[in-house]
Specification:
Helix 2 crosses helix 6. The protein folds into 2 domains: 142 residues, 3-Layer(aba) Sandwich (Rossmann fold); 97 residues, Arc Repressor Mutant, subunit A, CATH 1.10.10.10. 39% of the residues lie in helices and 21% in strands. The relative contact order is 0.10. By secondary structure, it is of the alpha/beta class. The N terminus is likely disordered. Keywords: DNA-binding, Phosphoprotein, Transcription, Transcription regulation, Two-component regulatory system. GO terms for molecular function: phosphorelay response regulator activity; transcription cis-regulatory region binding. One of its GO terms (cellular component) is protein-DNA complex.
């Protein structure tokens, strides 16, 4: 993943922990806001709701980020110190239909009509409560078919998998999985009841470009069981039949 240095408008590679990798699979939102405290507050509220949020305080930085990474929604201030929000909205609309929520102190009807005609999906006038903004974000994403609050699939004994946001919970507590652990769980759960060999799992779940040993699948499964099973030595979700492979034995409720 890339981290963007907003102050000097550059980007650099950064190594993240496992939890950040999982977050990167969620809905990605870019906040374009020159007031850092406002941007940080919005980012915090969005992340509490399970979204992955980044922010830029310059329009030029936002344009560079948008050229490098795909986002599911943009929260856009109009009064930026370099490029206006209106211009950014026009540039985005030339190549993308990503939802845009304008958040600005401009309260005139002309400004609102102009920006909505340019392609914004919603218009909020500052100050606005973070809770209302989060609610607007969810509403816009729902209209775009990108978000559902009821997308989690519940299984026996407290396990739930939200395939839309790629989050896994046990007894309502979110579990941090590595990318390969999540891929294996997703593949097995979506093909519940069928046994798969290590080779099947590498090809169908992890990907043909996986360069690890096939025995590494056993390690991923072992770690996955430690996280989702009540008793990893007597698993209820991922079971083994020796000489055949692994299957997902959980039942939907």
């Amino acid at each position: 993943m890339m981290i963007y240095n907003i102050k000097n408008n550059t980007c650099q590679e950064e190594i993240f922990n496992v939890n950040i990798f999982i977050m990167s699979d969620k809905i990605n939102i870019l906040i374009v806001e020159d007031e850092i405290k406002v941007a940080e507050t919005i980012k915090s509220y969005l992340e509490k709701e399970g979204f992955n949020a980044s922010f830029a305080i310059l329009g030029s930085a936002a344009v560079n980020i948008l050229n490098e990474k795909t986002f599911n929604l943009i929260i856009l201030d109009l009064m930026l110190p370099d490029i206006s929000g209106e211009e950014i909205c026009k540039m985005v609309r030339k190549t993308s239909d990503v939802p845009i929520i304008v958040l600005t102190a401009k309260s005139s009807e002309d400004s609102k009509v102009n920006v909505l005609n340019t392609g914004a999906d919603d218009y909020l006038i500052k100050p606005v409560s973070p809770r209302e903004l989060v609610a607007r974000v969810k509403a816009v994403l729902r209209r775009a078919g990108l978000f559902s609050e009821n997308s989690a699939v519940p299984y026996n004994d407290g396990l739930s998998i939200d395939f839309a946001s790629r989050t896994v919970k046990k007894n309502d507590i979110e579990i941090t999985l590595t990318p390969n652990e999540y891929k294996l769980l997703k593949f097995l759960a979506q093909n519940a009841g069928r046994y798969f060999s290590r080779e099947d799992l590498i090809e169908g779940a992890i990907g043909a470009k996986y360069d690890g040993y096939d025995r590494a699948v056993d390690s991923h499964i072992k770690n996955l069981r430690q996280k989702i099973e009540d008793n990893p030595k007597s698993p209820k979700y991922i079971v083994t039949q020796y000489g055949v492979g692994y299957k997902f034995a959980g039942t939907k409720i």
